[in-house]
């Protein structure tokens, strides 16, 4: 017993010592990185060149400071301790430092001015204006040094506030094809009244905010669109990302979990050390940086519920992940004495969880349903029953974990005799699961299925899909191509036999909480049962053929979606396409209103049988219009975020605007988003063509609408994710369904949904 106590004490001492060294190393690395990015686009070593230059000039009997060094010498209290020569040397070094800092500020200001220039986006391919020709080498010169992840942050421009008359004009143009003449006349009158009266007052307040805020949109967007929503975030807000389409690197569940967790933690290490390259847009001759602020809350983050508003909580670091398996929660330490466990060690720990036959504690199995239901009941339960004792300790472990892992007991993927149906079920599983086996509040939850398939579910408030997609691309590539597996499907690496067992979390769930769990689960289950998901890879052609037609692939797909909706519903609708505004500091998204006068004109001509030549001409105009709308959204000249912020200002002032109220209540019956492939260098599609990502998807925004996500993979493939609601008789996600009669009954869970379609319409789709 004495020997055992000594060993435990030694292990504890070694752990504390290792953690102390790790902390000191981390602090030093953070300090060095702060210095490097703080002086960017210059380098810390440039101070030495400035100092040497000043001293060399003084040695040549010249005063480059024009008397400032002498004034500094007079005010420095050094005359008692240094000689006259020493005083002059110190004064020169102080002047050199001040000059160096001034040069850095000037360089940073110049870089910010250069990054504020966006006219290059509106120039036709191969045609560069003289201004852009001068701009390109200047940007390349000032950003030639290898940047850290956050090096560009202080040099990014602030999002500009558009002129109110421009926004109102663009809004009226966007809704013109959707309204009849009397409706458009009424809306124009509302808009003109708003612009000439209340709008100018709201605009002044908004410009005042833009003077002191880093980004006049992002904080309000995060709070009012996401955190203040009191409905379920499952399906309505959270979205999912899928595994490879055709291959699964291993069928061993614990092994896939081991490599996936390791890859995610390696990515976190890159983020913490700022070794990750900032995402940049390629421009002929140079690259333009995008804001990296969303990476800061990627790990160790959770959304905690509140009665009025939720709060995003972020911790600097976490050495464990939270794991759910068959109704039990575990804490899995992923570091040992400051060392990241090997993939094989994590696999071994995961296998211990899989082999654990202990039953869930009373009320534990479906506890996660609290995060899937309405927010107010969850906030009340959390405050009353999870603020002390074992419940608080266990909840803290989940919320402070690096991320959440679900070891699912189902098999998923495109497999078996019904690959198409299984792919749809795979999407639904990632979107909501069983409504209690994911922790929807975490920044993201990783799901590892019984057959080795994987995926993730991401909470939306802290970041947008491209940030999570970048993480997931790295994870999939690192898992398959760098970490790899042994011939029998296990992780590589050695196992330290003395690793402690994963820790079961302990709960004391009273009857009141169990009753609320059941109530939240019923709300979430009804929501999940209503979601109709369809995923399909389109292989007939891709961006390679589209580009040969000299058309933007995104514009081509967006116009195709407009055509599909028109044929499905017999008309046009307000269409949302997400565009990013990360050319600006702390930028999030902007709306591209894809349904334009030009796209409607093309579709009307196509459906009415106009000549091919006329249809081609109209299609080209629609494509160019869409590209222009996308560029305007990216460069801060969008419509919806400006109107949203004006609406928030009106609420703060307690004034009503019929125009803004009507604009913000309009339904987005077609909500679309492209998942960009950002790191094609990680995937060798030439030698490994089966390792194709499926991308991800989200739920429908409107009850009677569609949610469409797509990812353009390589040159010859586009993957689509379509969602709608069974409860709407006018929508169906999988249009390849053949109906035997005009009425179709779909049974999902305890709900029966009825749809009516004509054979002619279904076949036409």
Automatic annotation (TrEMBL):
Instruction: Please state the Enzyme Commission number of this protein.
Output: 2.3.1.21
Give the positions the UniProt entry annotates as the active site. Answer: 460
Subcellular locations according to the entry: Mitochondrion outer membrane
Show the stretches that span the lipid bilayer: 39-60, 89-111
Which GO BP terms apply?
carnitine metabolic process; fatty acid metabolic process; long-chain fatty acid transport
Give the UniProt family note. Answer: Belongs to the carnitine/choline acetyltransferase family.
Please identify the protein, giving its name as recorded.
carnitine O-palmitoyltransferase
According to its UniProt entry, this protein's organism is Maylandia zebra (zebra mbuna)
Taxonomic lineage from the root: Eukaryota, Metazoa, Chordata, Craniata, Vertebrata
